[in-house]
Each structure stands twice: as structure tokens, then as C-alpha cells.
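pipeline: protein-struct stage 2 | run 1193 | Peptidyl-tRNA hydrolase
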Amino acid sequence: MKQAIVARTDLGMGRGKLAAQVAHASLSAYEDTGRRTRTEWKGGGQKKVVLKADGEDALFRLADEAERLGLPNAIVRDAGHTQVDPGTVTCLAVGPGSDEEVDRVTGDLSLY
């Protein structure tokens, strides 16, 4: 079991901002996950990987694929208090789910 968080590289977010956006995405997708999967993922160490995407369109394409496969997912839109404009899409979380299913959506992406 794992979760992949895909963050945009084109926004130039600082490390702290990126960390906050990744945390928002992870928690949001986790909240939409069924109890059995949550329990299994938590018991297995909550494996996560953070990956790169080059823009908003890429995140929405990945989210559509995750939906098609029935995987939990969450798009994060920033409130705009610091580095980006309000409503800016910053990250997508896919999973938790089986490694194989998450990789079907995000397996071609590079590590952040």
C-alpha cells in the first residue's frame, strides 16, 4: 500500500510551502479512503512518495485516471495567503491504494 503525492514544479514554491501542500493533499485523500484501506495503510507504515508534474493540466489528467480506477484522490487548491494566488492548484494525492494501482496512475513520473 502507498500514496503518491504529485506536486507542480512550475510554481516555484519554497520548500516549506511545498511541504504544507503535500501534507494537505495526503490528508485530504486519506479522509476519502475506506476504513479497511486506511487501517492497512496505517499499519504498513503509511508509505508515501512525492513526484513531479509540470502543470495544472497534468494533475487533472492524473486525477481523472485515479477516478477511473476507483482510487482515492484529492486536488489541493491553495488559499493564496503566501506564495501563490488564491485557488491555485498545487498538488494531487493518489491513494492510499495498492502499489500496483497507484503506479498505474503515477508510475511514469519522476521523484520530486
